[in-house]
Design brief:
With 136 residues, the protein is an alpha+beta fold. 32% of the residues lie in helices and 23% in strands. Keywords: Membrane, Transmembrane, Transmembrane helix.
């Protein structure tokens, strides 16, 4: 009975951990995408494109970690604070649920293995499924 209580409490704890917003667990807010315009197009063999966007009323320029865009093309970017910005399509979006789900499955597998070992070690000896018929 104790093992069922432990499995139930772990399941409830993991479900709460999966449903709690990431910012409450200390994760940073993901950077927001911004629309930028390609100012200078770089060739794909040797350079990167240069983009310009409006950041709080100021025009900013940076290198885009991509190439092949045409001059004047609008591109959605993510500014991570460095000299090079990334395309918004290349940055993972959303919460890191995959890592949480992996942890949940690992915990459940460990508990199931422990429960199986407990049953194998401490299970009472059972009578055979088919009892022999008495000879008269």
């Amino acid at each position: 009975m104790f093992i069922l209580l432990v499995v139930g409490l772990v399941g409830i704890g993991v479900a709460v951990a999966l449903l709690v917003p990431a910012r409450m667990l200390g994760a940073e807010e993901p950077p927001r995408p911004v629309m930028a315009t390609v100012v200078e197009s770089g060739s794909c063999g040797s350079g990167m494109d240069t983009v310009e966007w409006d950041a709080d009323g100021q025009k900013k320029q940076a290198k885009l970690d991509g190439c092949g865009h045409t001059k004047g093309e609008s591109v959605e970017i993510v500014n991570t604070g460095g000299e090079v910005v990334s395309s918004a399509a290349s940055v993972p979006a959303g919460l890191p649920v995959g890592r949480r789900l992996t942890a949940l499955l690992l915990c459940m597998a460990a508990l199931a293995g422990g429960f199986y070992a407990f049953l194998f070690r401490y299970a009472p000896l059972r009578a055979p499924a088919v009892l022999p018929t008495p000879r008269s």
